Amino acid sequence: MPISQITLKHNKHRVHPCPNDKKLSLLTLLIEQNSNLDTIVITTQDSSPIKNKLKNENIKVLSDNELLELPELKCKLLISYDLPSSADVYIQRVSRATESALILLDISEQKQLYPIETLLKRVIKQEIIAGFEYEEQASLKIAKAALKPKREYALKQDTNSKPKHEKKSFNKPKKDSKKPNKFLGKDENGKAIFSGKSGERNHRYDGKPKDGQVASKSTGRKISIKERKPKNADETNS
After folding, report:
1. Per-residue model confidence as pLDDT tens digits over 86-125
2. What is the pLDDT of residues 39-94, one digit of tens each?
3. What domains, with CATH codes, occur in the chain?
4. To the nearest 10°, the Cα dihedral for 66, 68, 70, 74?
5. Which residues lie across from 18 on neighbouring strands?
6. Which three-class secondary structure string do you get for 15-62?
7. pTM for the whole thing?
């Protein structure tokens, strides 16, 4: 059967990982969930044991050989109970579905899925149904949940309960204004005394040098003046 004759949409073609000992329970669940669809169940083995356990006369359970004997048989939902060893045989199966196709996949059948995806030139989406995952997947899920830290949400504080901040005063203390510097007179040595200066520095105001220092002699700028020559007697008489 050419792949071009497969009319299924990508999101209607799925794989449900499931161990072999849970396949019958998952099959029953999927049939109940899709009770409004015309369903066919295909297996590589003898179909009788599955048919007897299902006890549902409305569901056709066929082997791959039985399906070949009914070339015109179609259905809306096709469920593969297991996978055939040949990818071409699976393409023959899925070409009978008009709406959706599901695969119950044990971990041992994973290697048979790769050739089918290669032939279809796309990966078939896998969807784990809770309670039917592999034991390794279930234990890994529990371990991840145990390692995941619990989020602690901090209680929002009431904005009205927040303490009000006191306003700081930025006014700098005013400095005392300078007292006027008054002349108080002279000491016993004749030095001037002022109210705003210590006795050691009052000498600067009367112009006298400190003890042990010689007053500097400041000389002004010397200007050379040439003596004017007297005029001749002849010049004066004239």
Report:
1. 999 999 999 999 999 999 999 999 999 999 999 999 999 9
2. 999 999 999 999 999 988 889 999 999 999 999 999 999 999 999 999 999 999 99
3. 8-135 (3.40.50.300), 181-209 (no CATH)
4. 100
5. none
6. EEECCHHHHHHHHHHHHHHCCCCCEEEEECCCCHHHHHHHCCCCCEEE
7. 0.58
